[in-house]
Every structure is written in structure tokens, then in C-alpha cells.
């Protein structure tokens, strides 16, 4: 580490040539520093009749690809509100903003890089420099936490469409609203789903094997699962918390196999999800049901890597493409998305789209761009499920700002596709149960 | 190295002018986002100067300073949430806890030298992050939120940005003064001896472990104080925001970019690094093409290639070669 710590020994007497090179380098560095500073001061001119909404997403860093998708979805929603693209009738966004005499909304994007402090800095910049009337974002739960803190201080509505940490709506914030269901609800859904399945199939699904990874998410999920199985009289046959990004799972899977639970509840990111499936096959372990907690099991790489071996797993989702088959409105919106940005909607981008739609709906009803009016309108939000592209009953906020009508869905891999199998009212295919054994496929 | 027992009047004047500028700066700023930018610079500078005590003067490169930062943030926040203790006290408590931790961690780690010490600090920081993530007592991954309703000087929560500016400026001044006092005292000479010629220092009777531990403890205390300030400013902490490796790297980067082992080098480094970081993001971040990160990275590469001694080293080289500047060339 010497080279970083101190001057290298020969460096004290630099030659003239070195000095000149260094001088140029310093000058360039200083110039860039100064220049970036000057350019910041001159934000572009803004039209009077445009309503500015701040949108904070991870546009660089590890989650950049997700952030760019979220941005495309938000832009599509804004274009529909502004009538630049004809939205299918019946959709909330199709209404536009007659309440504001057809004003246009303009999205101002901020990049939080997955860093909570940057998220707060961007929120403040958007509110004070860019004069946005409302904020939305930020995908990462911890960034949403700091960015919404800033919005709360300034008294600007913050609509969160895609962060699922339950604690966000337990803070008694006045200006915070969340449309997506949170993690507690997703896990609760699992148990409701299992009870439904028992009724439908007449089979006992009361013994559970919990198989979760050991980072924050896996741990939080485990805690919740243990609590809920107590409350709902399920029995935990085995509980394994494995180290994330592990390179082998043989002993863990052997323990699961020995405990022989009816249902495996698993929370894994991509690499671990693939590894576990390979290990299940190797050891010939096939429970009646493999109930995965989204993440790795729903990654587009999961089926690409596993092919047929990924079949029949069941996972939770917030959205699935087959919803477009069920509902022609969703299909039309998805076609427009594909036309514009070349990708289909997924759970994240569909929720972002919905976030902008909800904000536009509130702005329209408020008929004003005053934060207090927008907040009141958000509180009175009552959008039916038919006006959304989400498999929800609708949008209506409770006192804490949480949407009461949201729900998760449960999908199963069938024929290389994720198809919705639960809840029944949005299901597109019947469930395959029990999961066929490896040698009978 | 010349004997500096007397204060150079020109330097003293410069310091006073700089402080006066910093004190008056917010008066001309009405935009809170702009003021926030200066707060970020001061935060970076304070951490850089604190890191420099162990990483620069004593030459023990730590790439795990996030652990002290996180301890400071969690300690003051936990005390405020559970006992309702003022963060001013919590800040000191966090600092002391960080010192205890530094002593426990330094004892085994200082048996390692150079790169191996740096690696050990990374490992310790990772371990602590995992422990905190899984600690139910500390709310694990969910993180801690400070309530907004308790605002005021005692609670160190303000709606305006101005008090934050002056608090962090005060912390930076204290940190620089500590570094300055160390630089001038015999401890500072011991540190530099340990860095340049550890064997010779030992032969002369300098206890290596003892002085390395002193350097790490002082640095840890000041870094933890910076962490408490972060918690008070953002009002939400989780392991992913205060214990991550990215924080450790940034703290070290500020000092290395500015110039390790120099008093004001980290301050200069923070000005440059934070300016580039913030403005490149503001200008290009919303495009989603990563331009800001490319510019940011290029700047760091440029400095690393052209001057391993940091921007401060560049300036000193230049000064030495400018005509008529021979007299000041001794300064470090």
C-alpha cells in the first residue's frame, strides 16, 4: 500500500517534463471541477403550464437495468396522460388532466445509484431546484426511506409504487403513500393460498420446510413465516437459513429431504435458486409444492439456465405477462410499451406505470398543483381494479398511506411460461399439483 | 523536515481567511439543495481528515472505516430512540464505543502489515455489517428511523439546512485541529517514523503497536462522530447505508485523492470528489447512461496515474518549481 500512502521515493525531484504533464493534469482536473459547478447553475427554462413530477430511480449502479425499465414505464404513463399516445379507454391514465385544463405533466428524473444519501440529496434537489409538485420512486426500500423523509420535511407528496418493506408505512408520515402491497402481505398471501389449496385438493399441506437465504430479506421473511405458521396452525418441519451465494447445497437439501415437508418455502436470489434446483434434481427431492418468494425464481435467467428443470415451481409475483391474455386493456398497454422500448412489462415496471397513473389521477381531481391539495386528492383516491394494469382490486389508501386493495399473485412455471394460478379471479391456468417427481417428467 | 515550533504567519492567515469564507458562505445561498451540496463536501472532508490520521500520518491504510462510521450512526440513534438521549451525548458515546472497537480490532490486525492490514480491515467491516444486518436488537436490515416530530437543537434535528452546515463545519474544524495538533506533536513524528521506517522506529524505542492503536483510536472516534452526524441529517440508517464498503472506499478516496499525510489534502480531495460526484450526477445521471460514473472514475484514474501523492502533492510540486518559491518548498 506504500504507493498510495506516501510519495514514492524517487518522486521528490520531478523532471521539468513531469512537472509540465502534472500541471496539465491539475489544470484539467480543476477545470472540470469548476465547469461542472458552473453548468449546474443553469437549469433549463420551464413552461408555465407543465406540472413537474420528480422521479427517483437507480439509473446507474447494480440496479441500473431495472431503473431504466422503470423509467421507460413512467415515461409511457406520462405520455398517455399527456395524450401524446392514445391510451386504451377505461384505463385511469386515459382520462388525462381535464381538471387542470389539459395541462401536461413533465417527469424530472433523478438518479439515486442505490445509495440512500444520494436519494435524499436528489429528493431535495428535485423539490427545491426543480420545483416538482410531487415525488415518486425509489424502488430500493432504504432509499425510499430517506427520500420520503425529505419530502415529509418539505411537505411534498411522495408516492411510492414499488418498495415493499413493510416498515415504510409504519412511520405515520403525512405525505407518504404506497400503492404496492408490502412484504408482510406477500408472505401472508402464501398461507392464504395454502389454505385455499387444501380446501380445493383435500390434501394436507400443513408441514413446511423453510429454506431462506441469510441476508436481510431472507431473515425478515423467515421471522414472518415462523410467526404466521404459528398463528395459522402450520407446522415447521425444518428451518434452514443458508449462506447467500453459496457454492453447494447438498447438506441443506439432504436435511430438507429427511424432514420431508409437504411444502418448501424458499427465498433465494438467482444464483442460489438455480443451484438449489440442480441439487433437488441430483438428490431426487421433490416436495408436493415448491413455493418460492419471487426474486431468483422469477428472474429471466432462471428459466434460461434451467430450461425444463425449472418447470412447476410456484412463486409469488406482483404481475405476470399472462395478465395481458386475461385483460385486453393490459395487452394494449403492454403492446405500446414493447413498441416504445422493446421490452414487455414486468412486475416492477408495471408498478411504476401505475404510480404515475395514480399521481395523475390525484392531480386531476385536485385541480391544483398545491401540495396540500394533491395530498388531499391522494387520500381520496378510489380507483377500481378495472382501470389498472395490476391484478389488484383497486387503489384506496388507508390512514398510514398504504393501498388497502393491492394483492400479490401466485404464478407457476408451465410450458416455459409464468402463468397466474392464484387468486382465482385473475388466474389464467389451473395449477399443476402436486409437483411431478423428477423421474416422472 | 524543518523544525516547526513557531506558527507560520502566512499559513495562520490563510487558515483564518478560509474559516471566515466557510462561515460566511451560507449567507449567500438561498437554495437548500446548494447548501446541502456544501454540507456533503464538509462531511466528506471531515471523514477524510479523520482517516488521514491513521491512513496518512501513520501509514496504516484502513479500507474498513465504515465500521466506525456505522458504530457512530447506530450508537447515537439507538440511544436517542431507546433512552431519548440527546444525539450530542450519543455522538460522544458513539465515538467512545468506536475507540473501544478500534482497540479490540487493532490489537490483532496491527500484527499484519501493509496490504494485509488493509485486507483485514475490509474483513472486519464486512463481518460487522453482517452482524448488524442480522441483529434483531438493532432492527436488522429494516433499519432505524428517527422521528421527525422531535426537532430542535437538543434533538439535533432541523427543518432548515443551515444548522447542519454549521454543525458539520464545527466538526470539521475540530477534526482538522486534532490532526494539526498531532502533526506538530511528538506523536505525529512517531506516526511518520512508523510509516516510513518501522524497523528503525522500533529500534529507537517507539512502540509500534501502541502508537498505531493511538492513531486508529483517534481516527475511529472522529469517524464515528461523522457517522452520528449522518444519522441526524438523513434520519434513517440501515446497514446498507452506513456499514457498506462503498463508504470505506469513499473515505479513503477523499484522503488519497487530496493527498495523504497532508493536513488540508483531504479537504481539497473532498471538494474535488464531491463536486464531480454531485454535478456529474445532476447533469448526466437522469439519462441513465452512466455518463456521470464514467467521468467520476476517469478523474480518479487521472489523479492516480499522474500523482500518487494526490492533488496536494501536485500543487506542492508546482510550487517548488515556480520561480521564487524556493522558500516554501519545505512545507508538507
TrEMBL record, chain B:
Record field: transmembrane: 12-29, 35-54, 66-85, 91-110, 164-182, 213-231, 251-274, 294-315
Pfam families the record matches: BPD_transp_2 (PF02653)
InterPro entries, per database record: ABC_transp_permease (IPR001851), LivM-like (IPR043428)
Intracellular or extracellular location(s): Cell membrane
GO cellular component: plasma membrane
CDD domains listed in its UniProt record: TM_PBP1_LivM_like
Top-rank taxon, per record: Bacteria
Record carries keyword Lipid metabolism: no
Gene Ontology molecular function terms on file: branched-chain amino acid transmembrane transporter activity
Topology relative to the membrane: Multi-pass membrane protein
Key words, A-Z: Cell membrane, Membrane, Transmembrane, Transmembrane helix
Protein's name in the database: Branched-chain amino acid ABC transporter permease
Protein species of origin: Azospirillum griseum
Taxon lineage: Bacteria, Pseudomonadati, Pseudomonadota, Alphaproteobacteria, Rhodospirillales
